[in-house]
Design goal:
This protein has helices at about 5-15, 20-35, 35-50, 55-70, 80-100, 105-115, 120-130, 145-160. The N and C termini lie close together (about 5 Å). About 70% of the residues lie in helices and about 0% in strands. The protein is globular, with a radius of gyration of 16 Å.
Length: about 160
Amino acid sequence: MNTISGKIIDRTWKQINEATEEEGQRLLDVMAKQQPFVVAYLMAVEETLMGEEERGQLILIGLILWKILSEQKTDLRQINMDDLEAAETANLKFLEELEDGSEMDHMAGLQNLLATYNQVPLLSAVIESLMADNEEEPEMANENMGLALLHLKSVLDCLDQ
């Protein structure tokens, strides 16, 4: 799939964030019919990682990712649990390799990711959304922010295939 432009990302992000609760629910219902495993995966992640009052952000970001990518590729294939688990495993392996390396290896690995990843603008928007209200003090972000990003990137990887 082609790299999604920042303009499309911003427009869709704004559209969904400004949607009424009913419009959002209708959209989520369509997503659940087209990508049931993605919805179940994100709901399970939220239930595992977050308290009840914090839930909803991952589903919302997942909904935005799905909406953007499904509008760009109308015949988006249905993702299954094996796809999600394989993407999650690959992302965990990447992180483990970074962790095992030196600080220079970290920088090289991240630069390589940014140079080769197909959806850098979309991944950047996900990170920005997760870090909202913590830009000035990233160390104050939710302790599960890294895991949330890992799971959302896994969804993005699958939808972008």
